[in-house]
Amino acid sequence: MYKQLFPKSTLRSIFMFLFISLLIFPFASAMASTGATAVDLTTSVYGIIAVLVFVLAYSLVIGEEFLHLRKSKPVLVAAGIIWILVGMAFNSIGEPHAAGIAVKHNIEEYAELLLFLLAAMTYINALEERNVFDALRGWLVSKGFSLKMVFWITGMLAFVISPIADNLTTALLMAAVAMAVGAGNTAFVVLACINIVVAANAGGAFSPFGDITTLMVWQKGIVQFEQFFALLVPSLVNWLIPAAIMSFSLPKGKPAPIDAEITVKKGGYIMIGLFLFTISMAVSFHNFLHLPPVLGMMTGLGILKVFAYFLKKAEHSSDPSIDEIALNESALNIEQTDSGGHGTEKNYDIFNILARAEWDTLMFFYGVILCVGGLGTLGYLAMISEAMYVGEGFMGTGITGANIIVGVLSAIVDNIPVMFAVLTMNPDMSLGQWLLVTLTAGVGGSLLSIGSAAGVALMGQARGTYTFFAHMKWSWAIALGYIASIWVHLWLNADLMDVAINSAKMSH
User: Fold this and answer.
1) Is 252 exposed, middle or buried (0-12, 13-18, 19+ CB in 10 A)?
2) pLDDT at 424
C-alpha cells in the first residue's frame, strides 16, 4: 500500500523539494541581522514553525496526483495556521494590530484575482455552451491539421493573445480548444497544456498587461510601456525552444473525425465580441482611468448576463417549443444534476454558473497568497531579497545572478510575492537588469506547473491529465528555454545594461 501511494519517483521529488526549501530557510535566517524589514521575526519560534508548515503543505500539493488530496486543502489549512502564528508573533512584541492590517492587504489582493477569474471562467463556459470551441475543433479537423499542427497553432495563439489579455485567461481559453481537439488523447493534451502554459507566460512577459508582475513593474514607473517590448525576442525564444523539443514526442495522426457538422449556436459570435470587449475594458480601466482591471472584467460579466437574458427571450419567442433547459443554459445557468452536466431545473439563478467554477483552483490561490503573505509579514521575502542584492549577492552571483535566481524562486513559491519583495527592496539596477528580472519572474514560473497562475488553472481544467509530475517531466526542456532567453536578452539588449533608472520614478 505504501509503495502504491508513494512511488520512488514521487518520494524523490518530495524529498528534493523539502531539501531545497530547508536550504533556503537557514540561508534566510542567517541574514536576519541585515535589517531587511522593520520587524524581523524570521528567527523566532513562530517564524520557524510557519516555514515548516508551508513546506509540509506544498509537499502535499506536489503529491496530489498520488495522494488524491485536492491541492487547495493543505494550503487552506496552512494559511490559517501561518496567520495564527503571525498574530501570536506580533502580539509577543506588543503590536497586536499589525497582523490584521497585513492580512487585509493579502485578502484584498486575492479578492481581485478571484473576481477576475470568475469573470474569465464564466465567459469560457458561455463560449463552450454556444459550441464555439467545438466549432473551432471542427474547423481544425476539416482543414486537415495534424495534432502537431494544432499543437503549434494553440501555442502560437497563446503567445500572441496573452500580451493583450493576460496569461491566465489566455491559457484557459487555449486549453479548452486543445482539450476539445485532442479529446481522449492523453499524450497530446498533456504536451499541448505544457506548451500553452509556457507560451502564455512567455507572451505575457513583454507586455505590461500580460502578467501581474509586469503590471507591478509598470505601475511603479520603473519600466515604461514601450520599453517592455525589448523582451519580445527573448520571450519568443523562451517558448520556441521547449515547444520544438516537445514536438518530437507528439503522437502522430489527426484529430478524430466529426460525424456531424458543428455550428456555433445563436449569439456565440456576439459572445466572442463581448469577451474581447471585456478584455479591452479591463486594459482601458487600468491604462486610462487608473482603476483595477478586475472592474472592467466584472462590468463585462454584467453585460454578458444582460445579453444572455435577451438571448433567452429571443430564442423562446422564435420557437416556443424550445425546452426551457436549453434557454437557461444559454443564459449560463446550467444545473449539474446528472453525470452529463445537463440541467433539470428551470429557474434562472446566477449561482448555478458560480457553482460550476473550478473552486479547488480558486481556493488554492487563496491559500498560496495568504501563506506567502504571512511569511512575507514575518520578514522572509524581504530578507531573501536583500541577501540576493546586497554586496556580491547570493554566493557571489551579483545582480545578474540574483535576477536569474528570482525566476527559479518564482517557480517554487509564486512570482507575485517574489517580485513584490524585489520592488520593496528597490535595488540599484540599470534598465537592462530591471527588464531581466521582469523576464525571469514572468517565465520562471513555467518551470513547474505550480509556478504560475496559468499552470495552476490548467491543472484544474484538465484534472487528472495535466498534473504536476506530467509537467515536471519536461522541466528540463523548459529550463533550456529559460537559459536561452536570458542569454538572448543579455546579448540583444546589452546596450540597456548601463542605462540608469531614474529613481524619482519610484515615488509615483
Assistant:
1) exposed
2) 65
